[in-house]
Amino acid sequence: MNVLCGYNVNIDSVYRVSGIEISELLKNFESTEILGKIEDPPGKILSESDFVAGLVYCMKNGCGAEWLVLEATVFEFLKNRYFEKSLVRMGGNAGIMANALSQLGASRVIPNVAVPSKIQLSLFSGRSIYFPGTVTERKGNSETGSGKTDSEEIDSEENMYAVSSSQDPIHFVFDFSKGDTFSLYGTEIIVPRENRFIATCDHLNLRLYVNPAFEKYAIEHACEIDGALISGFHLLLENYSDGSSYKTIIERILCQLEGWKVENDKLRIHLELGHFASKEIASSVFLEFVSILDSIGMNEDELATLRHFHGVPGEEILLMEAEAVGNAVYRLASRYGLTRIVIHTREFVLTAFKPNLELNSKQASEGSADFRVLEKLGDFKIPSLQKMAERKLKALKFGVSCAGVYAASGRLEGRTFVEEGASKLQESTIGRKQLELFLKTFNGQAFGQGAYAFNGEYILCILPTLLSKYPITTVGLGDTITAGIFLRELELDVQA
Question: What is the residue-averaged pLDDT of the chain?
Fold first, then answer.
């Protein structure tokens, strides 16, 4: 399978922060300033105190967040304090998904790279990554990228980009662990759940900058591409210094996607959402792209952000209740004509999809030949629908296995590695409980470790996740599960 990956590729500087460090760090700031910002989070970083408040807020609540660093002095503070002590790895939804796809067996993966520095290119997988417009194509088996990256090729690549930058796009990722404790100005805080806080310093990706070579390759080779994974829209700002806004960028990307579809109407496009600082931008992205997408993915936080579109209380979704998530995805899909939505939570993954149903003459005589026939399928007796649901569950299982193994090991080294690693992981007990509730609520049918149910014109599928007791990383799990599901669905649909 050949897959395009746009648009955000960056460098992650990953640092595991301890409770002791936080207690010491807090001593450098006035309590009233930090506590005020924890009570009313600014959502962006213009000062060192903004950063500290954001990190403490996430640790205190066990939640994840990504805030943009908009002040150069804060970038220098973070780089000087943490970069040399960090694990440097591939970052950005598109970069992580590109690596996952290549390691899981995709034939060719074409990423959009805004800043092609030596460090950035070295972080790509050694398998089947192709950089348009260059002679550099990653081959081999090295996880850190053993393809050609000599200085001559790097210089050539940099000259091909209309916009270059001497500053690598760095996202400072702060992982923290469940059970860590720290003193918040005299109050002992126990971290309720492992998660991460990300401080993002990334100017080109804030504009979803598109490498001209990537853009040229995508339109010229669209007929050869099976799928496209697009992401990074959560980085958009309401306004930019040149007077433009996020709306201009959305229009530009939408025009590009429409061009791909004109060249290849079978091309599948999946949009992966992210943690939006602005509800308005999140809403605009959703509404503008729904008409051209084949699928859309998000976690429970992002689904709750869109509650004004589906009407399900955000509190129930954030508690990862299968009934609330199932109702929300069904309403979103049916109200806005989406073909498929995938929700990945810590405890389970749930999808709603509209099947491409082709009825035979006997079935057609028994009811309407359009999708309204699905309203009568509570008895699960149409084999073609059962097979569709089972294929989706197989794809979900593959994605769940990939994410679980990646969390446990920090690596993906082919399908055998994933299968062996997944066999050693435990199924989420909360996810299993929610599956049982799903069966009762939606009159579902069990299949393997998962279940499916019919709801109006859609089929809902749910599968518990696989959890590691001591995860090496919590970053990139949503992107990994998305890449795994997307690739396996493409393969299974071709086989069908």
Answer: 88
